[in-house]
TrEMBL record:
InterPro entries: Cro/C1-type_HTH, DUF5753, Lambda_DNA-bd_dom_sf. Keywords: DNA-binding. It comes from Streptomyces cellostaticus. Residues 16-72 form the HTH cro/C1-type domain. GO terms for molecular function: DNA binding. This is DNA-binding protein. SUPFAM superfamilies: lambda repressor-like DNA-binding domains. PROSITE patterns: HTH_CROC1.
Amino acid sequence: MSTDFQTAREALGARLRELRAEAGLEGKDLAAELGWQPSKVSRLQNGKQTPAPADLTAWAQACGRPDVEAELQGLRAGLEMKQRHRSWRRQLAGGHRGRQEIAVRQTEATKMIRGLEVSRVPGLFQTPEYARVIFDANAEFRGIPPTTEAAVEARMRRQEALYDPEKTFRFLVCEAALYHRSCPVDVMAEQLDRLYNLVGQRRIELGILPFGTQLRRTAPHAFWIYDRRLVIVETISEELWLTGEDDIQLYERAWDWLAEAGEYGAPARRLIGRARASLDLG
């Protein structure tokens, strides 16, 4: 659970406790009034449990303050936003390894992953050296501990899922990602060789969105769809974890529209091969 979320939940709990005290009620009295166990009142006002909307309505009425219900519901809505928004500053405070272990578990729990990458190779397809450069650069950028080797190990372990016969991977990569080079030439060459060899493998659909292709929907940012239960979107400052049906449908439509413009199979290999040939290896 994110610290941002817990802090916001504790703030809501403190407001509930304040309302109870202003009403001159002990916790056990409020519980009896509402027909709850006293432990529920304790958990809610100490930020140990997330209240349901009906809980807040009942609490406000029992305290004789129906006028504050809208305020309480607004605080709860803020909780949901904190749960969706996960700051990189907090997630990576101890380095990359922890977030990579979360990625391993998410992948293990998923049958189909669909993803779009705009400017870099998807982590599931990265070589160890390419991943190492990405992690080192990000640690420097964010000023976090360089736990690179542990993060690379976790990322490579995550890639074992590519060979699970129960899983399917469908990815789109903008052609620009084949040319954007944040690593030495030899590392990029090895990475492009790996991508080339992944095209056409069973359970892996890798499409390239070519320069100059007409798109029904542009590709504004990267995103990953885990089955039909979760969409993860990365920004510079945070991740968005979206679980609402409307959000998932919207990103599925975006993925479908982009997939129409993808090049697959032999045409995808030609695009990767052209990028590989552009590298000057001396």
